[in-house]
């Protein structure tokens, strides 16, 4: 399992910065490296030998920064860092410029917690995908850029039970497909997606209940048999 993704928060309003920190810390797999309130502090943090963050949550309305200068300085100097803009700026010109600069996402204040969590989950999905393959098919690329949810029918997404999140469910179905004929156990899946075993099992059993996943017991030489989960297509092909 990947170590937690590090997040640097650049926000001059300490109240909003604290809210953003709380939002980040609610999502498994992310930690806040630091919170800074000015462009000068942000650049100092990045240049003083600290471990670089994976993500910067950037407010572009910072008192000591003119226009998008901080955004472009970070983008040109630290290309390995992903930037997520969180701002009150709604001007089309601003949005177009940061999109052209490769921003990962753009969220307008006040921030909706669900939208925030979905964004971080999508980030985690993309990073996992990019680190797990050497080549990508067009469908994988489409899913990465367009956040397709083809693996979860719209009707099912609309009626998901409590405790089942559509984005996490999509991540799990994608992972199951990559496991080929071997399937996974709840323990194995929990390590891959960074959740508890009980959470992983809840999602797997839900997929069983909607006929997207089958189970099979695998008997070893000692101990109890393993309960392994297979996508229905894979299960049928290997029977």
Automatic annotation (TrEMBL):
Keywords carried by this UniProt record: Activator, Cytoplasm, DNA-binding, Phosphoprotein, Transcription, Transcription regulation, Two-component regulatory system
GO molecular function: DNA binding; DNA-binding transcription factor activity; phosphorelay response regulator activity
Domain Response regulatory, first and last residues per copy: 6-124
Compartment annotation: Cytoplasm
Residues bearing PTM 4-aspartylphosphate: 59
CDD domains xrefs: REC_citrate_TCS (cd19925)
PROSITE patterns: RESPONSE_REGULATORY
Pfam family, one: HTH_64
GO cellular component, one term: cytoplasm
InterPro entries found in the cross-reference section: 2C-system_Tx_regulators (IPR051271), CheY-like_superfamily (IPR011006), DpiA-like_HTH (IPR048714), Sig_transdc_resp-reg_cit/mal (IPR024187), Sig_transdc_resp-reg_receiver (IPR001789), WH_DNA-bd_sf (IPR036390)
The protein's name in its UniProt record: Response regulator
Organism, as annotated: Oceanobacillus profundus
């Amino acid at each position: 399992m990947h170590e937690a993704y590090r997040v640097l928060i650049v926000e001059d309003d300490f109240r909003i910065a604290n809210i953003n920190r709380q939002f980040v810390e609610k999502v498994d797999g992310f930690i806040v490296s630091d919170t800074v309130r000015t462009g000068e502090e942000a650049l100092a943090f990045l240049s003083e030998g600290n471990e670089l963050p994976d993500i910067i949550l950037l407010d572009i309305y910072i008192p000591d920064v003119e226009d998008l200068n901080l955004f472009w300085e970070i983008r040109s100097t630290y290309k390995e860092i992903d930037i997520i803009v969180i701002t009150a700026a709604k001007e089309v010109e601003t949005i177009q410029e940061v999109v052209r600069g490769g921003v990962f996402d753009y969220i307008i204040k006040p921030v909706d917690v669900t939208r925030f969590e979905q964004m971080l989950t999508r980030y985690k999905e993309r990073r996992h995908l990019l680190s797990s393959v050497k080549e990508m098919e067009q469908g994988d690329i489409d899913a990465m850029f367009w956040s397709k949810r083809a693996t979860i029918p719209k009707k099912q997404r609309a009626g998901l039970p409590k405790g089942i999140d559509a984005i996490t469910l999509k991540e799990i179905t994608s992972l199951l497909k990559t496991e080929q004929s071997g399937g996974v156990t709840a323990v194995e899946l929990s390590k891959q997606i960074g959740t508890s075993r009980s959470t992983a099992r809840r999602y797997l059993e839900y997929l069983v209940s909607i006929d997207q996943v089958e189970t099979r017991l695998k008997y070893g030489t000692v101990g109890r048999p393993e309960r392994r989960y297979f996508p229905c297509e894979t299960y049928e092909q290997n029977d």
